[in-house]
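User: Here's a structure from my thesis project, written as structure tokens. My advisor, Dr. K., wants to see whether a designed sequence matches the one we expressed. Can you design one independently, without my sequence as a hint?
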């Protein structure tokens, strides 16, 4: 989104005001392109190192250069294309976004083997979308009439900045007649530019309000030191209220629990640039595509997994913010340059972390496959006799075959069911014979079973010698059981085999005692917004800090959730029932990946129209 389109869409009176301001302002000498060099440092949280070798910013238009036909460029060697994506919601939804956390959108990961990973169902997404725009119950936030709501928001902002109701005109007239009592806006913007690089507020945990009076006092002192005026002058009402409105937005940022402590400090450094934007661009708050608000949203989205400031990603974003503070005077295209840098950084991070998360998911899936095979072996050998000679076949060779089939085909496949059925036949065939019917079945099926087992084992990379040894052991066990049985028959009477092998196996099976609800029941208790790609603050035990992690894998067969950090590395796993309890107790919570600007603007609008 370029500033060219924004400039063309401004009303004529806005353009005139901007031109007048530009004529009265002394432009600084042209700046040279300033690259942002990302330092290489170790992220103490994850124990990994981020490196960004290429410069993020290579060209920035100077204040004297026209922005028309002057695109913001990245270095020619870059192979990453960028779109200045708008993270904001529509302005008509702003009023409905009060204190609610907002929309949480799942970020789907590319690796989805079989049913183990949990992609969000399409019907759930559709229903969630309806919920996201639901009426919050506030009379002033009914979004049924789009045009009416947009007008209401515009009027609310205008009335607040210019003065309430019908008193707007009289207040403006009064200021004009006594203009010498107030600072000229040109001087205010110059003083703000001076403060921009020196005013470095830091967020204090628990802080919920911006100390606006302290900031205004610092601004007036700065103007006095510049020698442009005397201490008896003050800010005019419109400039003062513009500052108040922007500070109210930043106060809402401080109260947004979805933003980490580290990011709140970084966002606070953009207070003065945002105040200047609001003074220079009358339609800033109404323009959903404005690069300044998109910059705020991009910082929040990119840093959603950041837990502290001691990592390369945060430091790189800090460099981008520092450069904006250094270069931004009155040319709003500086925000386009910073937004382009952030978008490029987002693409780099997404590519790097996406690859690592895919590696992590594959490792998780392999471990899950081993657990599935172990569970099947335990289930079918429960209270069964397994001869010592047969253990290599069942515990090594057949388990390896089961692992291979699960990885390649999944648990619902016919290939998996085939070898599980053969496993049950093998185990049943080596149990003590307790009836003539069982003796006849074994006598009749032994050679067929051994042939089927041989065919399956020969599809693996197991050594032929080990396969032959296992088949020989199985054949000898069958012969010994038949010859030593009290139900031995010289001439087998096949009329006794009235039941099938499967029916007889079913009768002999003993179920493992239940230890709780089945996995699918436990999974069904999870809230609908617990999906792959959603970020959470996770309870990590007593006296331990919460961790910001992303849900990467849902294991349905084990009712288990696997979470990764912003690098894509596995951090923690939770059983479904355990996680539901933590959510209910508010020990863990969802992090809403929403537009922080719209969320804050919705709160401010509703606070001033009530």
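Assistant: Designed independently from the structure alone:
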């Amino acid at each position: 989104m370029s500033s060219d389109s924004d400039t063309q869409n401004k009303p004529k009176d806005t353009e005139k005001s901007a031109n007048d301001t530009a004529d009265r302002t002394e432009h600084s000498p042209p700046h040279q392109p300033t690259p942002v060099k990302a330092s290489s440092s170790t992220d103490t949280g994850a124990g990994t190192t981020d490196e960004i070798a290429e410069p993020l910013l290579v060209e920035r238009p100077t204040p004297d250069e026209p922005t028309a036909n002057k695109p913001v460029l990245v270095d020619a060697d870059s192979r990453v294309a960028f779109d200045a994506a708008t993270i904001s919601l529509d302005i008509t939804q702003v009023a409905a976004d009060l204190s609610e956390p907002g929309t949480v959108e799942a970020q789907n990961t590319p690796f989805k083997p079989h049913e183990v990973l949990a992609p969000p169902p399409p019907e759930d997404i559709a229903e969630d979308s309806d919920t996201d725009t639901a009426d919050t119950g506030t009379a002033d936030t009914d979004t049924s009439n789009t045009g009416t709501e947009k007008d209401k928001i515009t009027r609310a902002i205008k009335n607040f900045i210019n003065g309430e109701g019908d008193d707007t005109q009289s207040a403006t007239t009064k200021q004009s007649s006594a203009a010498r009592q107030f600072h000229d806006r040109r001087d205010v913007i110059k003083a703000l530019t001076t403060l921009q690089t020196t005013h470095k507020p830091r967020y204090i945990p628990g802080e919920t309000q911006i100390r606006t009076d302290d900031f205004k006092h610092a601004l007036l002192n700065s103007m006095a030191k510049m020698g442009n005026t005397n201490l008896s002058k003050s800010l005019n009402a419109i400039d003062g209220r513009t500052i108040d409105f922007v500070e109210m937005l930043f106060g809402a940022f401080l109260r947004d629990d979805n933003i980490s402590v580290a990011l709140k400090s970084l966002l606070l450094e953009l207070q003065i640039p945002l105040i200047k934007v609001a003074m220079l661009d009358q339609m800033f708050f109404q323009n959903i595509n404005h690069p300044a608000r998109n910059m705020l949203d991009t910082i929040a989205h990119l840093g959603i997994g950041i837990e502290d400031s001691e990592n390369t990603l945060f430091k790189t974003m800090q460099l981008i913010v520092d450069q904006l503070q250094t270069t931004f005077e009155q040319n709003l295209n500086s925000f386009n340059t910073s937004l382009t840098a952030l978008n490029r950084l987002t693409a780099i991070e997404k590519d790097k972390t996406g690859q690592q998360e895919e590696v992590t998911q594959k490792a998780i899936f392999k471990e899950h496959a081993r657990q599935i095979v172990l569970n099947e072996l335990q289930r079918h050998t429960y209270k069964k006799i397994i001869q010592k000679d047969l253990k290599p076949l069942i515990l090594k060779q057949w388990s390896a075959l089961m692992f291979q089939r699960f990885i390649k085909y999944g648990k619902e496949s016919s290939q998996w069911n085939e070898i599980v059925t053969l496993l049950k036949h093998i185990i049943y065939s080596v149990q003590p014979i307790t009836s003539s019917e069982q003796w006849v079945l074994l006598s009749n099926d032994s050679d067929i079973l051994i042939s089927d087992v041989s065919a399956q084992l020969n599809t693996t990379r197991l050594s032929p010698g080990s396969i032959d040894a296992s088949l020989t052991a199985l054949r000898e066990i069958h012969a010994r059981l038949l010859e030593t049985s009290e139900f031995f028959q010289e001439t087998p009477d096949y009329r006794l085999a009235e039941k099938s092998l499967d029916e007889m196996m079913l009768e002999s099976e003993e179920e493992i005692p239940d230890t709780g609800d089945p996995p699918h029941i436990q999974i069904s208790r999870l809230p609908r917004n617990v999906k792959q790609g959603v970020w959470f603050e996770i309870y990590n035990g007593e006296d331990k800090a919460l961790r910001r992690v992303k849900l990467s894998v849902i294991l349905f067969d084990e009712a288990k959730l696997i979470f990764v950090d912003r690098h894509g590395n596995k951090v923690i796993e939770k059983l479904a029932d355990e996680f539901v309890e933590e959510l209910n107790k508010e020990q863990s919570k969802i992090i809403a990946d929403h537009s922080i600007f719209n969320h804050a603007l919705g709160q401010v609008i509703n606070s001033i129209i009530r």
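When you compare it with your expressed construct, this may help: The chain has three domains: 3-100+138-357+594-609, 104-135+518-592, 384-508.
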